[in-house]
Give the backbone structure.
Amino acid sequence: MSRYECVDAQKAAGFAVTAACEAVEVSTSGFYDWCQREAAAPTTLRELAEAELVELMRQLYAEADGNYGVPRMYKALRHAGLVVNKKKVHRLMRKHGLAGRFRPRTCRTTFPGPDGFMIPDLVGRRFDPGAPDVAWVQDIACIATREGWLYLASVLDLGSQRLVGYSMADHMRTELVLDALGMGVAARGGDDAVAGIITHGDPGSTPATATSTTARPASCAPRQEGPGCAGTTRWPNRSGSR
């Protein structure tokens, strides 16, 4: 019998805890800490088995640098020879704060062309032309939905800082950018009204830099895929994000 167990027995017999602790030369705070540990300790075989499982899960979690979520933890336990329910793994990981690291999906929209051709940069970082309809800039953004990526192509007039055209689709093919340019051309009054406008996009991207005599979509045919991705809201579907 340990000294703490002796104090506990004397307490059950009706003696004061302070006097019992003094008799066996232990502190009262140490006795009460022992009581808390005893109360929290597993008592049944099932609790003992669960405690051993949690200890193994902590070890596997640490060896994986905290990267294991439920699916990988479940596979690691099965690989170790344990027959365990996946729901139980989920419950224990949640109870003991073992959460895998979440890496958000990334969307790449810039790809080099197969021939390495680069259209000359006619804007040269001069993003304040001083008048509307001198230069337009284009971009493609990715919006994450539970159905997959939704791609948004936009055309911005640098002079007026107004959005003149946009297009949305579930792909990054040529028509995505052409539809956005077509909206911009129609908004500005047609081919003759936009003659000579520079359309600019990132190098190696769908809306690549070009000078057009009419700025019509056919004269700004893209070569590769588009630039950066800017999706931060997870929409339930593509229709909802529109």
About this structure: The CA atoms of residues 78 and 84 lie 7 Å apart. The radius of gyration is 33 Å. The first strand starts at residue 135 and ends at 145. Residues 45-63 form the longest helix (19 residues).
